[in-house]
Amino acid sequence: MSTSYILIVFAICIILMIALITKAKVNAVFSILLTGIILAIALQTPWAEIEGTINKGFADTIKSVAIVIFLGCFLSKVMEETGAAVKITESLVAVLGEKKIEWAIAISGFILGIAIWADTVVILLIPIVSTLALKTKKSMVSLGSLTYLGALVTASLVPPTPGPVSAAALLGLPVGQAVIWGIIISIPSVFAATLYCKTLKEHLLPKEEFVKAAMEAASKRENLPSLFNSLAPLSLAIILIMINTVLNLVIPGTGIANFFAFLGSPLAALLAACIYSLTLTGKNWKSKTVLNGWADSAMESAAMPIIVTGMGGVLAIFIKNAGVADQVAEVIVNAGIPGIIIPIVIAAIIHVVTGSNSLGVMTAAALVQPLLDTIGVSPLAAFLACGTGALMFKHGNSSGFWVAVSMSNMDIRQGMKGVSIGATIAGGVGAILTVILYMAGII
Domain extents for the chain? Predict the structure, then answer.
């Protein structure tokens, strides 16, 4: 097969995959699977090997993330149902004060987005944010956008949210490194988005229904967990993962490093966090609702990202086996394009076309992984590039965009001004920092 043929087939298959998802409204799982099979046939993979290759690509990819994604979804469910997410936000507002309300909302979203889908964060917090907007006379264009953007950034860059967990697995990056560097890049990204949103002073009142809902909830609210207990489960998981990463860099092979290699593994750390999170439920931890109902809900939430991640592995293995990676990489090198730009652009394009930052992160990681050696980009640099690229140009084809815009009482123009530009600023700042760190040889 000629280089031209391989590149044309690869390009057509990617366009087909995007068209199936966006135009034909085919589920992402079927779209990626069909694209993988068509790519395999077009690249002359022996018929008898196609099924086995699909199973291998799928299994090799999800074996390290399936349980982790489920545990992350369960932890998210506990934080939602026990009021821990609300407590974190209320506490930050109390500490920072109403004059710094934008920062309180952004930091709250930043923390919650590590474990909870960004759309869900908006649904959980919008009654509180609406009340604060009315009380402080701040615009919902600013506060509503920040409620979503703070969570969106960490949901794209910091495990255990499914998108970054899957991207790390696809790229062969240890989750500990993904957590540490995801947080490092997320901080200036959220900071930049917050500075921008503070300039949005167009008068916009919240929806009355959410103000009333917040007041009713406040009058009935009892026994919210303490701030320490609200933060403790997620903090426990992150601390254990980070300790493992540091010990195995500083004193590898020692007894304590080997012990934390298990205790600080994503699976054990998240399991410990889930078990501890049951203390937030008080005496209800033994109930069927908690141990069965919430677990069932977590399984439903985890199923889609697990299967999409596996399908990304299917696409990656056909690309790798057929030598597409070498051909694409050769074109990139000859064109003089810095390798680090490629995952940023791919993630941004997939995000713009599909509207899903999670799909952008995961699919870009699957497509880029076979190219890494040739274009000279490390798995860590590619991970950060995918995560930041998938933040850019959020617009009207995204369910999260509409959740944030509609619940904040914004129209489409205000939503584009707040959410779309804010997300692009966050992603752009993160991408620039990623490129600088890559060029400096740090990542």
Answer: 3-439
